[in-house]
Give the backbone structure.
Amino acid sequence: MYFSILSHKPYRMVFVSLIATLLYLSLLIFLRFYRKKPLNVVLTLLGFSILPIISIFRQGSYESGDLTINMAKLMSFYSALSEGQLIPHWAGELNATYGYPNFIFAYPLPYYLGSLYHFFGLSFLNSLKLVLITSYISSGLAMYFWLKNHVSERFARLPFVGGLVLLFFALYPQAFWLPSLGRFLLFLLVIVLTFCLRFLIQYTFALFAFWLERASAIEQFWFLIYLFLSGLVAPLEVFPAPVREVVLWTPFPYLIHFPASILIGLPVDVGRGLLVMLGWAAVFFVWNRWLWRQGLKQYSGMGA
C-alpha cells in the first residue's frame, strides 16, 4: 500500500521533502552540538528556504490555482516586451484573444523577472518556476534583514523604557497593581466578545461595497464617533451622568472602556455590559446577513 501511494508524484514529493527536512535538521544538530561550530544565520535560513521548493524542481507542471493563468500572462508580457513595449499594459492574448488590460493593475516585477529568465533560454514554465523559487528565497532573507535592522533597534530601547517604568513605580508605588485571576479570566472572555462585536461591525460596513464605491467612508465616519464614545480619547467618567447613561446603550463603550474597566477593577455592571454586547452583536449579525443576501442579488463578476 505504501509503495502504491508513493507511485503518485504529489505524495512522492511530500515524502522526499520530509526526508530532506530530517536530513537538514540532522546536519544542523551535528554541526552545532557535535562539531561545536556556530551556525551562519543567513546560510541556515537559505537552507530552510530551499526545503519547501524541492517539489517545484520536478518535471512538468503541477496542480495549482493560478499556475496556468500566470504562465499565459507571462507569455503575453514577454510578447509585449518583444514588440518594444518597455512598460506593457495590454495583454492581447488574454480574454479569448480579445485582449485584457491586465498589466495596468498586476504587479509587473514577477513578469519582468520571468521574461528575463525566458530570454536566457528557459521555457515559460521553468521561468515561472524560477520566479517562484527566487521570490520564496529572497522574501525569507529580506524579512530576516528587515527584522534584524528594525526589531533589534527597538529591543535596544527596552532597557531604557524598563528603567523609566521602574522609576515611575518607585516614585508612585500606589500605582502598581496586578489583577486577580478571576478578574483576568473575565477580562479575557470580554476581550473575545469585543473582538467578535468589532469584527461584525466592520464586516457589516464592508458589505456596503456592493452599492458604494467608497464604503470605507462609512468606516471612517464611524471611527470618529468611536474615538470619543469608546473611551479611547477620554474615560466615560468625564461625561455628564445623563450623557454617559445614553452612551452605555451604544456599542462603543464595550470596545475599549468596558474591558479596560474590568481589568483595572473599576466598578462596572458586568451583567448589563455583557447583555448589551450580545444584543448589539445580534443586531449587526442579522443586518450583516440581510446585506449579504441583498448584495448577492445585484453582484456580477467577470474574469480573464
About this structure: The chain has a mean pLDDT of 85. The chain is about 65% helix and 0% strand. The chain has two domains: 64-176, 179-298.
